[in-house]
Amino acid sequence: MLTKRIIPCLDVKDGRVVKGIQFVQIRDAGDPVELATVYDEQGADELVFLDISASHEGRKTMIEVVREVAGTLAIPFTVGGGIGSLEDMRALLRAGADKVSLNSAAVRKPELITEGSDFFGAQCIVVAIDARYDESIGSWRVYTHGGRNATEWEVCDWAKHVVERGAGEILLTSMDQDGEKTGFDINLLKAVQQVVDVPVIASGGAGNAQHFVDVFKEADADAALAASIFHYKETSVQSVKGELKENGVHVR
Hints:
Elements: E1 5-13, E2 16-21, E3 24-30, H1 32-42, E4 47-51, H2 56-70, E5 77-80, H3 86-95, E6 99-102, H4 104-108, H5 111-120, E7 125-134, E8 139-144, E9 149-154, H6 155-165, E10 169-174, H7 186-193, E11 200-203, H8 209-218, E12 223-226, H9 228-231, H10 237-246
Parallel strand pairs: 1-4, 1-12, 4-5, 5-6, 6-7, 7-10, 10-11, 11-12
Antiparallel strand pairs: 1-2, 2-3, 7-8, 8-9
Helix pairs in contact: 8-10
């Protein structure tokens, strides 16, 4: 049986880790290299770094952060934000990232998924999908640019499309649940899980260890990601894994 992964997420802006609620109300959460080291020691299975400013200066900062973190980590990590070309992917992978995450660029230029998958292998290409429920379509709509821009894509259609394009993994964030700490969006996860055959990482809504138990038992997510509850020490990776083991969920 495959073990479930616990993945802390570091949203990085101008070289610092930050966290918000529903993609706004951003506040500082610490130094990315220090936090990465702590999570490695706590037993995190992977890390995700998202450069949420992704300006020209932010990109240079991120390359340095990736290089520093790669020198201290023993676990895989994924880097996303502002990646718009094969060259951007190459630079981050060369700096020490194990995978790259595409979001807005994938919607703007879907062939980038295929190019990256063909060149580096599908296992290196994660497509991040930010989804918000839309009453007008009775489903979830895909958003880009840090949750600011609505697209024409319905989430399940987009998920199928990115996998056909060569994505090896999907990082699925519920914008409705992001930072709310009321639990992952089980219905969203189930809907996407039914239409793709690649691992899906649940993101958005973790508030306690029970929420991780729920997302693995009810939605059978492959991995679950959280940020603020780890950054602000409301719980730890060890505590979450302990709770999962007690509930019969297989973890490393």
